[in-house]
Amino acid sequence: MTDMARSADPIRERVQRHVGRGNRSPVGMWFRDIDRVLLLIAMLLIALGLVAVAAASPASAVRYSSGAVKIPAMAYFWRQALWVVLSFPVLIGVSMLPVTAARRLALGGAALFLLLLMATPLVGVEVNGARRWIGLGISQFQPSEFLKPMFIVTTAWILSFRAKDPQLPVVPITGALTGLVGGVLMLQPDFGQTIIFGSVWLTLLMIAGISPRIMALLGAIGAGGVVAAYVFYDTARIRIDSFLFPDPNAVHTDSYQTDMAHAVLTAGGITGTGPGGGRIKFKLPEAHTDYIYAVVGEEFGLIACAAIALLFLALVVRVFVKLLDEEDAFRLLAAAGLAVQFGLQALINMAVNTGIAPSKGMTLPFISYGGSSMIALSIGMGLLLAFTRRNPYLTRSPYGTRWNG
Questions:
Q1: Is the Cα torsion angle 254, 256, 257, 258 positive or negative in sign?
Q2: Which residue, of 32, 56, 221, 371, has the fewest CB within 10 Å?
Q3: What's the sign of the alpha-carbon dihedral 341, 342, 344, 346?
């Protein structure tokens, strides 16, 4: 046997082991193709979210209990655990979809949830002065949460046609879609989500290779839009003013919330007070949702906060590194946009909790409490895993069969 034949045998054995006839089931092929590091990051975030909700649950239970209704201390934790059990199979199921099926799911979902979003100001449930939710009797959900990943994939699909024909008016089309979504969100009002949709759209335009002249023009329009929002949009002006020029005598302003979040975040020092040891968290509004990152800081320390931030950074970096050699324009744009959504939403929430940005009602992905939010995030992560899935052994195996996706 020649040296070349000997060296080829281990390679052949490895290829057969990965894509041989005995392991061609959809689950087996999914496990080969999936980005296991990305899946591990998602699972770690979900697990840390359960721990964080368990820490924040007693504070929220005390705040929302009344004389007639007593909420058990760990009620929010058990509800979140139930939502995780329900949403994790959704994440895995969506991640198993071929690219074509995942794209169709996103396009259909975008149409459905855009209609629901447009109906929300008319039939939605009002909570804390905002009409962002649609009630379902025993529960309610926020259409914008489900629309986000669907919108990103739809925008990526439209922009991907530019690779085939640069003359197609993809910028006006996607701009009109983004403007429609942003306009409806401002009616609710939901300024934070408007920033997410607009920022992801601009990011996708840059990745798609839109000319710097157009990007500069859009940047100027965006800056003008912020100024116009401050002048004509009461919600934006009130939040910005209360953040920049706080009233020390007011206790229900955005400044009070962000200041209290900063106090809770730093109360635990480097290592935290320990599970259940936090006390300042009982003064914090929305401890289990918008300001859960501060609760993590008090009970588990700034080290735990840094670990969560690094996990989100690792998620974004992992996706972008994986996309360096991606040749399909749609998969490149869709995966990059979804990664930016997770990273930007986490960044905004952390900025609010640390007191360097005004309150925006933005939850921390996979960490904050919320049933419909958890399902929507699971759909988004499932789509991200579907668009980053690949098997390097398929092209080298004489035994494997190609799976479209």
A1: positive
A2: 221
A3: positive
Which tokens is 180 given? 């429609």
CA dist., res. 264 & res. 401, Å (int): 55
Alpha carbon of 314 to those of 39, 147, 164: distances in Å? Answer: 12, 24, 32
pTM, to two decimals? 0.86
Q: 45 Cβ partners below 8 Å, 6+ apart?
A: 308, 311, 312, 315, 365, 366, 367
Q: Which pLDDT score, from 0 to 100, does residue 19 have?
A: 47
**How far is Cα 279 from Cα 109, in angstroms, rounded to an integer?**
42
pLDDT of residue 2: 55
Low-confidence ranges of the chain (pLDDT < 50): 1, 4, 15-16, 19-22, 394-405
- So what's the pLDDT on residue 402? 45
Report the DSSP beta bridge partners of residue 126.
131
Classify strands 140-141 and 130-135 as parallel, antiparallel or unpaired.
antiparallel
Are residues 371 and 83 in contact, defined by beta-carbon separation less than 8 angstroms? yes
C-alpha span between 180 and 175 (Å, rounded):
9
Q: What is the pLDDT of residue 15?
A: 47
Q: Provide the residue count of the chain.
A: 405
Tokens of 359: 């309150």
In a 3-state reduction of DSSP, which class is residue 302? helix
* 3-class secondary structure, 174: helix
Spatial CA neighbour of 133 closest among 316, 341, 367, 371 = 371
CA 315 to chain centre: 11
Q: Report the distance separating Cα 81 and Cα 267, nearest Å.
A: 27
By the 10 Å C-beta count (0-12 exposed, 13-18 middle, 19+ buried), 153 is classed as buried
Model pLDDT, residue 68: 77
- Taking alpha carbons only, the member of 60, 37, 34, 50 closest to residue 366 is 50
Q: SS3 string of 43-68?
A: HHHHHHHHHHHHHHHHHHHHHHCCCC
H or E segment and range at residue 131:
strand 130-135
Instruction: Provide the 10 A C-beta neighbour count for residue 71.
Output: 16
Amino acid 313: pLDDT: 96
